[in-house]
Amino acid sequence: MKRMWLAVCVVALAALVSLGRAAEPDPPGLDAASVRQLLEQHHVPGVSIAVIKDFRIAWTAAYGIADLATGAAVDADTVFQAASISKPVAAMAVLKAVSDRRFGLDDDINSLLKSWKLPTGDFTRDRPVTPRSLLSHTSGLGDGFGFPGYHPSAPLPTLTQILDGQKPSNVGPVRMERPPLTAMKYSGGGVTIMQFAMIDVIGKPFPAIMQEYVLGPIGMSHSAYEQPLSPARDRHAARAHDNAGKAMDAKWHVYPEFEAAGLWTTPSDLATFAIEVQQTLRGQSGRVLSRAMMQEMVNPVGVGDFGVGLSVSKRGEGWYFGHGGSNWGFRCSLSAHKIKGYGAAIMTNGDNGGPLIREIEGRVAAAFKWDSLDKPVPR
Q: How far is CA 234 from CA 66, 75, 116, 238, 335, in A?
């Protein structure tokens, strides 16, 4: 089996497709032979990379196998599950709704929800749960989700069933455990509450909201909050693989928690998103948000290290924003400097993609002369 896997690897790597290589030569340590060694070492079938330099996509490459079951190679159009990187992309849409005066960033979330209400008890006596606290993981919710997704043949729960922990949901209820803004605890459930509020306020399906508010305006042409994938889009989708690099029993899991985990995309589209953040912060763009509103995404709210949707960290002498992602059979990362116009999006189709991503990000940082990186992007 190992020999077969390696043989398919070689075939797929021979069919390597790279984008934008005229802009930059292969950086040291990121040529096909070097990345092939990393893929084999970490038992990850495929990886796709987009590097940002001077506020543009400067270098892209795709290596390895998109689907071990078919031997299809990763190429420029291969889409991966963005997992939790779905959250900051969706947060941009929430801030667009705030800019359009649909609601306030500090409004009580229960004033926005029509189809379901969050039980809060005495926890909100001093301050309410708000969109700001939900998207910065400071709302006081205790779920800690991470969603496992659903087999394509399984029945899917409604949002109400997910939030109340009722079958066929495969997670527990989303409930308060402390007052808002007293601590940061990662909460996929809180982001799913925000998804519910966006649907209730705007009155459209969440995928349509995202296409209208963010994906279309900034040109994320290979991206969609589509769960499950249509056959047409699935033709370009990577398969999920386990820690040993073996194909999972389904090509991918389905995530009705769109805002928390439901984006399918490419590294180039994620880089386009990061560049929009960077350019808006320097006053050079504004296709979705104003400069002042974009600051809400990259400035920590005061508790923890999240702004509205994005994690912010100081590494070496640089301040970076970004997010990681971990879905069933997929791992990915987005990291970008707040002011210097560089960054990287890296997507893999294997459960052991985390160590591979850290190695590739280190090589990118060295090759493109980033500020020193002394800790990984939070995931």
A: 12, 14, 33, 8, 27
